[in-house]
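Protein Entry — a single chain follows
Fields — amino acid sequence, structure tokens
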Amino acid sequence: MTTYIAILRKEPDSDFGVMFPDFPGCITVGETLQQAHERAVEALAFHIEGMREDGEPIPDPSALDAVLGDPEHRGGVPLLVQYAAAPRERKAS
């Protein structure tokens, strides 16, 4: 299991937004914190599996200091999201 850092944001009168610094374009939202976390787990898995299918390399998780040190993430709250790789199907020989 691999843990990635997501950035959680909540503006007044909006849902919780979640984005992954290691995976540009991988974003999701939730009405509650619980729902945002559940959807973040789903979004991360979907994104990574799509990258695997396309033969793209999967990045190692960034360090917390690196993520929080990026001015783009100022004001966001780090959220740890785990990814458990699905077992690979074996090709018939």
User: Anything to note?
Assistant: DSSP finds two helices and four strands in the chain. Confidence is low (pLDDT under 50) at residues 89-93.
